[in-house]
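User: tokens in, sequence out, please.
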């Protein structure tokens, strides 16, 4: 159920969307050690976004995952910021990342929640 949302003021050409989503999906799966079949990536490009009063290329990432290990977030940040720079041209210093781990009963899928005993 890992979910990565990427909000950016950069325009991603239609021809590059699938590759970008695929690279981010693979990276999240590898970082978290979870099957990529459970990873969801949302791309919100061309959005009105500024950082420090500037509309130069910038990005906000939101990484949501059950059991997200807090001790690993600095490593995740390095990898995700480097990807934003490489794939979008957004300098690492212009990327914010919101890491979240919801309680299992507050994240739903397939007609239930992840606290449901049928989901082990």
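Assistant: Sequence out:
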């Amino acid at each position: 159920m890992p979910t990565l949302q990427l909000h950016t003021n950069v325009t991603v050409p239609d021809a590059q969307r699938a590759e970008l989503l695929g690279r981010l999906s693979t990276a999240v799966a590898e970082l978290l050690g979870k099957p990529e079949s459970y990873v969801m990536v949302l791309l919100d490009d061309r959005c009105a976004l500024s950082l420090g009063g500037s509309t130069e290329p910038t990005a906000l990432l939101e990484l949501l995952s059950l059991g997200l290990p807090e001790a690993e977030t600095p490593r995740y940040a390095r990898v995700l910021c480097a990807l934003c720079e490489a794939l979008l041209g957004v300098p690492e210093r212009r990327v914010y990342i919101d890491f979240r781990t919801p309680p299992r009963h507050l994240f739903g899928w397939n007609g239930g929640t992840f606290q449901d005993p049928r989901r082990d």
